[in-house]
Amino acid sequence: MPSAAASTAEAVTVETFRAPEGCLAYLVVDEASRSALAIDPRLDQIEEIQEALARTGTRLTHVLDTHTHADHLSGARRLAQRTGATLLAHIASKLRGPARRIGGGMTFELGTRIVEVFDAPGHTPDSLAILVDDRLFTGDALFVGGAGRTDFMGGSASALFDTFRALEALPEATVVHPGHDYVGAAVTTIGEEKAWNPLLRERDRGAFVTRMSGKGAPPANMAAILRHNLGEADAATIGPRELQALREQGEPPFLLDVRSPIEFESERIEGAKNIPLDVLDGRLEEVPAQGDVVVVCRTGVRATIAAEAMARAGRRARVLEGGVLAWRRAKLPLRVGRKRLPVDRQVQLIAGLMVLTGVTLGVLVNRWFLAVAAFFGAGLTFAGATGTCGLALVLMKMPWNRPLAPPPGGGAVCAAGGGAPPTCAAP
């Protein structure tokens, strides 16, 4: 859910859009002109952002990514196309297609405000930070209490050290809006980070580089995500009502659902075939080589990755825009089966319970129990930073998380909204 925050003078307001994995996107609004800048919009947040624009009577004039993302599909290009906003990209970005190029020391107008651009390399070579009045949007350069990783995509710990020196020169009251939240705090200030962030406090370049030298697992589907975010691939889409009209005409497209078996078992569009994204490459022969193919997932993200992978294999496919969530919002029929708590919510419940138990026992019984809380906290931090969660992998093997064979008749068919959606399934 988005949240709103206003500057002291009410000249600029910021609306924050949070994804389950901790990614943060922003709408920065110049109140005097009702002009807005979208920062780091995800592909699965486009509808939400457009709804916010319509709700507040705001015109989107600029869209940008603070860097080339490797952990999620960017919605910047598509949002700019839909709204007519100017797409901005760093001078060092390898983004294909038209975009206004910006870099450190440059400015642009957001209504009545002047937006300042800072080069912020380290996480990626094309990282930038944006300053609007007293609000700094740092992308993956500076987090609350930490920083973005520097171990892939041309990352450089030494360059990030220099970026930190530039950012810390800003006034201490400068409000910082990072690109991710892994600690439950989406807003900080330069002063707070100078006082408490151990990476920003490190003054020795060699020691800083050593601290940032750890390597983590790459994000899932990283290569496919980069191809999309650099404009090298962009799957065609089809809206829910347009798809339903084709189905009602008697020659329905082949529906390929690339969600997990558990999600598919929970609810699905009638007639869809389930081939999870992680095994699609080995099962492409089950998808018609000719004819109309529409790929479905929860929000459209995994379907986009699948459709673009199929295109590289010479297969044409469209993506159901907005996925099952958009299909449900359009009040189109879904076949509903057994509902189960998604694995990521199981992880949240178990980790939260263990942290709470460790802290409670550490305070009331023995301080060594605090190690339990520290262990699970470190695990959550690692999962957020790398996209790899050991607890989730274990839970996926548990009997209650294994898909069941569908019952005779496949379950009841109901209209959208007839059951709790799997709101936390991975996009």
* Major sheet characteristics: 7 strands, mixed
Helix content: 25-40%
Q: Tell me the fraction of residues in β-strands, as a range.
A: 15-25%
CATH uppermost class of the largest domain: Alpha Beta
Second CATH tier, the architecture of the largest domain: 4-Layer Sandwich
DSSP helix count? 14
Give the CA-CA distance, first to last residue.
15 Å
Look up the CATH topology of the largest domain.
Metallo-beta-lactamase, Chain A
- Measured on Cα atoms, how large is the radius of gyration? 23 Å
Cross-sheet strand order for the largest sheet = 1-2-3-4-5-6-7
Low-confidence stretches: 4-9, 404-427
Instruction: Specify the overall morphology.
Output: globular
Q: In CATH, what is the homologous superfamily of the largest domain?
A: Ribonuclease Z/Hydroxyacylglutathione hydrolase-like
Descriptive notes:
The chain is α/β, with parallel strands linked by helices and 427 residues long. It folds into three domains: 209 residues, Ribonuclease Z/Hydroxyacylglutathione hydrolase-like (Metallo-beta-lactamase, Chain A, 4-Layer Sandwich); 104 residues, Rhodanese-like domain (Oxidized Rhodanese, domain 1); 59 residues, no CATH class. The protein contains 14 helices and 23 strands. The protein has a seven-stranded mixed beta sheet with strand order 1-2-3-4-5-6-7, covered by helices on one side. Strands 8-9-10-11-14-15 form a six-stranded mixed beta sheet. β8 and β9 form a beta hairpin. The relative contact order is 0.10.
